[in-house]
């Protein structure tokens, strides 16, 4: 049994980690960090967790984590001054927020608009796109879990770039997201039900901080600097991300041929489902799961390829992906505790 | 391992049974019945099940069920002529639709408006409100799983009636439901997204077929004929039922005293959570789970007690409840495979 | 042309007043009060109002209102020290929040849990349930517009009480509301999209401040002190209130007979639609309008009557009702500018 | 007063036409065609229209239309054999479905996959994008109202093409739509609430029939054959379309410079609102209205321009646009009866 600590337990990602780890056969939650719930059962923040045996929440305490945990999930940003100590005492860390995703912290500073809180820790992190970096993840003690938009985008277009199917610089990613990605503490007018219901809008156009993550990964795959356009949208639902990705085909191809390349590329990826020709992903088919569905269409008329991917932003886009990384880091089957079908309808 | 057959696999209840049984450690799905998907993986109806190893769907065939299954979940109505044969060959049956919930089939005929399809089978059934009839369920080979509204209502008011807290005849149950209860094949105008979104309405007022189920159970508890008003409403969400139940207190009581009676009544019921004073159930805290949340308020001003319960209509209201019954029927821990927290948010 | 001032223009009720008054043929908006938008077009708060000619917003200023307006809509609470001055200078006031709805301000203090801000002003107010008090409204210079839940409830049960159809004390009102009633500035966690979507819960059980409003009106109708139970619920939609009202029939009656009494009672009420037998109100059929739909069912089995009403909480429940009162106060046709069908779907 | 006939009154577009025309000061509805409601008030299909004086519905009858109407709105496809007769008798026609949008009916046949029902009528039609063809509309007796996606897309990118701001062939349009566009009679599983709620998916990728409409209009603007990619998506809301349009800038430009070009281009278009720099359109700001909101961002990093537009698919995308065309055809102010703010929230 892997002993699990979760910091940021009272946020949405924290709750999703708890939900998934409670049914994980090789995991035992031994520490829950939450300032707002300190001293109480996490059910006081998430009544859905009432009825489950869990340690009471505690404030963040490195010594306690070192004593009680094999791995710490950071479900929120912060605690930077304690992380090296935790790592050096043999506790692995899986970081869900965006802090450690860039080797080159100047990219962080440009897109996040602030100084990097801890370049030393960032230097030690492996980017946790498990499907692309399984061996590195297995050897890592610190994982930077990908952004929700980033993992959906990277899985959608990785084969295009890795197999040189599209012209460099031609990729455009248009993403539609449920609003839970904004988190539980962002109690701004913009996130009120009345404002978001029956509504859709883009935000951070040409300026979203997951853009350079996607570019970093695609550049590793192609060996050259990749640049793309990324536009996120909020749509009136809670969970799920759909990406619609456009690229100019380097050479004319048939839909079925591209699908075959995708199937091969993801042959060893149990959580990536390449849909049959003519079927397109729908986010609800992944809700609550760690799966990513991919569908595509080559358009001979315009010479473009259109690839779509669907994930649950809190599943494959956060907690599920993090647990998948944990499984690999601890030498377990990648799928342990994660072969959970979506909640449908 | 219990070998599981599911008839009606391509409906919502069928899908939910598959979802829950895929992670049940003591269950193995060996038969999936679906006319519309016969010969194909159930993923053709529910793409979210792609990636999971499951037997291909087949048309209903009693011989095959008898050969391959220890228990058959009937997730749809029908197949009446085969059920006795199946039972007599040692395959237990758990029936999810309303066919076998009344000992007195004249009640069925009155409220369903048609002749009972199989009184002989109905006579053999045990009403599967596990919390109230655990021993009978354990001894049964045929379970009539309660209706979704019924189980939410019965759990909400059972202690009131069993402990004689309210005046006979004074109970009113106002229920609000997500629309998945209508099922996947009812493709009528009334169930279109555009018609239900931003909308709420009552239906079958004073006339809903779950009413006599609730009355039958309450009458068993009190030993006298109980009658109540029940009004179902469709609200713009997919899953979840909230009941708001009103009764006239026989004697003035404090909220905390009634709560204490509820806590005792449900002390051995792992899936019933009695909320602390001042907290009320919200359906989302049960979504995707087998839990029922209950909260209440005694109102000294009017002399009424108001009890609210929340469930997932496809969980505790259908598939989860059915599996809970299976666990008890096969001598397993009641909670095996069902201690799954809700999907939140 | 009636010259209109609106204080609280940047709230939801303010926006709805602007929307309706922009197409009102006898109204001209001459003053918009909003602290947060002062000096700017209201389109900075509600971009949907861009493209419409409107006075820039200003901070609250009694002198300016007196100079420019024939009537002031108070779309928010406050400004108590200026109201008598405004009234005494001949500007009528229609107050949308709950400040002036009780003659007996001790009721306000009990249910709102604070001292009344201005009993002197309250004493001057007429309760603006136009259908019940048309003559008083016509003569008033200060209207206390009814609460959204209150108007839906009062219209639903007024004939029952006025015509002595139900036993005194037997009324229970179970209301389901969209969440826009919470307003735009209540940026609390509970009102986030992610928390409310796919969710329903009761709140302020046996304790909601619209209860005594309904009781006050019903008591006027029956001539005795009426008491009832009222339970509000939030459901996942933005606009709309459905009430489901239960009462014990004093004498057995047929549905059609009760309907006929309702039709007569509301014969002169152009905004109250009594639906045919067997049809029940749906909130979406009133969305964006000033209409109230009513349907009902007498249940011979239990001796109860079940009446349902639907309104738009921002229409008949706030801005529409307020304008209806204005029409009557200024001697216009009650329906001027308000015969607007709902937005459907 | 213009005497109005509407064929297809019991569909969503028909209902929206009625809603808008009931408050139009220069219009009088004299004929409502609906097979399903023949002989009855349209309130039997749309209870929200109860309380409004309207002619009873009738089956389609050219003679009656010729006798009673100045203009016929075709809110549904069909009646082809009668249209020339109606036109030749001086009744103008505004056709909302896709039948008459292509001069070259071979384009219709390619994208709609069937023979054109009436090329002779199509030849007579003017494409009703009022902002682009005001003079032609004024002179027309038959208008082909644009498709909902088409009008949102055309207004978004017209200035880019007309002013040669982007490279030919570089435009990609990613559209997100509420589901009311599917209509009320398409009672298929895919349009059930339970299937669409919490869900987003693309459909008809590289294959949607509004694509050639957009291309036809852009080609007229640029004088060369324009080709683009268009991808529609269904998102969980009822009304509204957001387009996100991408193009490669022919020359590097600043956001403010492009905005200025847009403002000039639409200087005489009262229903097109060009938003300030940094603000992006949200569909809810147009719900129920005839407005189109446009926002944009030039991205110096990638050399792309991203333009977004929002409309109500039943407003500017159908009924509102149709009435705008009627206003122009009958020599009225373009805005008469249409300066209606959106319903918000």
Specify the helix fraction band of chain A: 25-40%
Structural class determined from secondary elements of chain A: alpha/beta
As a whole number of angstroms, the C-alpha radius of gyration of chain A is 20 Å
How far is the N terminus from the C terminus of chain A?
33 Å
In terms of quaternary structure, the protein is: homotetramer
Compile the SSE list and pairings.
Four copies of one chain form a homotetramer.
Chain A: E1 2-7, H1 12-22, E2 27-33, E3 57-58, H2 62-68, E4 71-74, H3 80-88, E5 92-95, H4 105-112, H5 119-123, E6 126-127, H6 134-139, E7 142-144, H7 148-162, E8 172-177, H8 193-196, E9 201-202, H9 211-222, E10 229-234, E11 241-248, H10 255-265, E12 272-274, E13 292-299, E14 304-311, H11 315-329
Parallel strand pairs in A: 1-2, 1-4, 2-3, 4-5, 5-7, 6-7, 8-10, 12-13
Antiparallel strand pairs in A: 8-11, 9-10, 11-14, 13-14
Characterise this structure:
- The structure is a homotetramer of 345-residue chains.
- With 345 residues, the first copy, chain A, is α/β, with parallel strands linked by helices.
- In chain A, 30% of the residues lie in helices and 20% in strands.
- The first copy, chain A, is built from eleven helices and 14 strands.
- The first copy, chain A, has helices spanning 12-22, 62-68, 80-88, 105-112, 119-123, 134-139, 148-162, 193-196, 211-222, 255-265, 315-329; strands at 2-7, 27-33, 57-58, 71-74, 92-95, 126-127, 142-144, 172-177, 201-202, 229-234, 241-248, 272-274, 292-299, 304-311.
- Chain A has a seven-stranded parallel sheet with strand order 3-2-1-4-5-7-6, sandwiched between helices. A seven-stranded mixed sheet of chain A has the order 9-10-8-11-14-13-12.
- In chain A, α2 (62-68) packs parallel to α3.
- The longest helix of chain A is centred in the middle third of the chain and has 15 residues, at 148-162.
- Chain A is globular.
- In chain A, 61% of the residues are buried.
- The model of chain A has no long low-confidence stretch (mean pLDDT 97).
- Chains in contact: A-B, A-C, A-D, B-C, B-D, C-D.
- The interface between A and D is large, with 45 and 45 residues.
